[in-house]
Design goal:
InterPro entries: DUF535
Organism: Mannheimia varigena USDA-ARS-USMARC-1296
Number of domains: 2
Radius of gyration: 20 Å
Shape: globular
Number of strands: 7
Largest sheet: 7 strands, mixed
Pfam families: DUF535 (PF04393)
CATH class of the largest domain: Alpha Beta
Helix content: 25-40%
Number of helices: 10
Protein name: DUF535 domain-containing protein
Strand order of the largest sheet: 1-2-3-4-5-6-7
GO biological process, one term: DNA damage response
Length: about 290
């Protein structure tokens, strides 16, 4: 592993694969890099001052590219991208400094339900949508089922992506997950998980990216899988504005307001979420 960092070459991000050429993407990358030359030099200086980030950035060249393109929010200027990228690369490793860095070792919070594990990890997909991720994985096959990526925005955390399965049988899997999670659909489970993580990390505000400002990844754009962020955040008791503002507290219904045949389901749902939050505290907070 190199001990120094330099802005990555285009071929490091877009190498040709077999007969497929990425010359057009390399051209766009080089043009954007040229247009953001001075911001890139500032970013290189930042990394030199924080050498603990060099292994991550050298191993994943695409983690640098958001500076010259998009990061978290389409509305950000190049200066905002620089500031937010620097802040986002540091905040979680500093807060979890008692643990190995996430790019060296992901963190498991255990099984939410049987065979489905919740993991805190780096974003292994589209870093322009945040460097950090919560993953719901099917353990027997080590298969990613649901992904939520997030970042830090001033004194709040921001949900940038909620991405579900996009493979054969995925619709049936979502139905089964909803049943196993006591009527809580997986996308909404991921939002509740992020609320818990926000609270455990000591933040008082959780935001959601509005639909029209989300940096859509390839899978989210797929015709077979469409995410309506505004609907998800609205149904998660969010308030719309520049960003969706999501409450951290679990909105528990009073049992006498719930039809008697559904009370057991809601009771199990709330218990599942409380147990998950306790697992997060035990894993992330020293001597919690």
């Amino acid at each position: 592993m190199k001990s120094q960092y330099k802005w990555p070459a285009a071929k490091a991000i877009y190498p040709n694969r077999g007969k497929k050429s990425y010359a057009g993407k390399r051209l766009r990358y080089n043009l954007r890099s040229w247009l953001h030359y001075f911001k890139i030099k500032q970013f290189e200086q930042f990394v030199a001052q924080h050498p603990q980030l060099i292994p991550l950035l050298n191993a994943r060249p695409n983690y640098s590219y958001p500076l010259a393109h998009r990061f978290l929010d389409k509305r950000f200027s190049s200066m905002q991208r620089l500031e937010q990228m620097c802040d986002n690369l540091l905040f979680l490793p500093q807060q979890l400094s008692h643990l190995p860095p996430l790019w060296a070792q992901k963190v498991s919070f255990g099984e939410v339900i049987s065979d489905f594990e919740l993991i805190l990890n780096i974003n292994e997909h589209q870093p322009m949508e945040g460097f950090w991720a919560l993953e719901l994985r099917y353990k027997p096959a080590d298969q990613l089922v649901y992904l939520l990526t997030f970042g830090k925005l001033n004194n709040a955390l921001l949900i940038a992506v909620i991405q579900g399965p996009n493979f054969d049988g995925s619709k049936e899997l979502v139905k089964q997950l909803t049943k196993y999670c006591h009527g809580l659909r997986p996308a909404y489970l991921m939002v509740e998980v992020m609320k818990a993580l926000t609270s455990v990390l000591g933040y008082e505000n959780l935001l959601g990216i509005p639909q029209k400002y989300q940096n859509k990844s390839r899978l989210v754009q797929s015709k077979r899988y469409v995410v309506d962020y505004d609907a998800i955040f609205s149904e998660s008791n969010g308030k719309s504005g520049k960003y969706w503002q999501l409450p951290l507290e679990l909105k528990s219904k009073k049992m006498d307001e719930i039809p008697s045949k559904k009370r057991s389901m809601y009771r199990k749902r709330y218990e599942m979420l409380e147990n998950l939050k306790s697992a997060m505290k035990a894993t992330l907070i020293p001597e919690a």
